Predict the structure.
Amino acid sequence: MIAAQAKLVYHLNKYYNEKCQARKAAIAKTIREVCKVVSDVLKEVEVQEPRFISSLNEMDNRYEGLEVISPTEFEVVLYLNQMGVFNFVDDGSLPGCAVLKLSDGRKRSMSLWVEFITASGYLSARKIRSRFQTLVAQAVDKCSYRDVVKMVADTSEVKLRIRDRYVVQITPAFKCTGIWPRSAAHWPLPHIPWPGPNRVAEVKAEGFNLLSKECHSLAGKQSSAESDAWVLQFAEAENRLQMGGCRKKCLSVLKTLRDRHLELPGQPLNNYHMKTLVSYECEKHPRESDWDESCLGDRLNGILLQLISCLQCRRCPHYFLPNLDLFQGKPHSALENAAKQTWRLAREILTNPKSLEKL
């Protein structure tokens, strides 16, 4: 048993050193290329409208606010200033979303974003995004990369297609630190010893972001309050949770397997599903020794089996907001197909670790 485990870990490490590192290097090269173009566009936006200041800065070889959705798809979060005069209202009526409401009607004129405040005092995510989209469209025509960049049409999101190969979504957002959403108040679960009080304090201090983007849980419901709502995002908190042991390596292997074998019609799976399942696996295996390098095979198998279960049940709850289903809106046939493909992959890896050389 131990010999089989060791064999799997050996082949996984080989896979990580060859395939995963090659994927990382290729994506890093793409990111540099993409960020040059995006920075140029945002510089033009800032000239027209100084309230939209580019926050896309490189630090320690990574760009703050950039998320890799797939090797050809990225999201850049543009942090806005001055949320100050608004209260964060998160009553659970909009799963995965919250609203920003003026703390006092008299402060309306003090807000930097006065013309985007609705009559009932909400700062409208949709109105800000609509204005930003207009500015980006104008900037694309003026910027020095105008020959290689185009706006993606037929969406209320701000998306750029670069060199006909890459898609980058630019999402206006507010960073919320020092508060924690009521809809995530159940976390951490009281009976689970992971991640421990110090890490919990760090994660909660990291806070979350409020993004101006289409919320899948609201698809089809278009009352004004809902289209004014902001989407909750916990990228930095999740990154902080997944530090230590072989967690990052495990996620890297999962992302590489997804890119190579689970990029399927209907796009049922993305990197974020993998990241979410790693967080759940951390809860199931709370001891640090469970994430020792020698346990990499066990953890990977556990996550693949959990993924199959989620695909078969057609439900993948968000880690911090379990009322939000990350499979919402995905075609059932696409989820079934993904379950079959994941099962094939898991069986192959488990019964014949050497097959990783070809995967």
In short: The CA atoms of residues 53 and 274 lie 32 Å apart. The first strand starts at residue 58 and ends at 59. Residues 2-48 form the longest helix (47 residues).
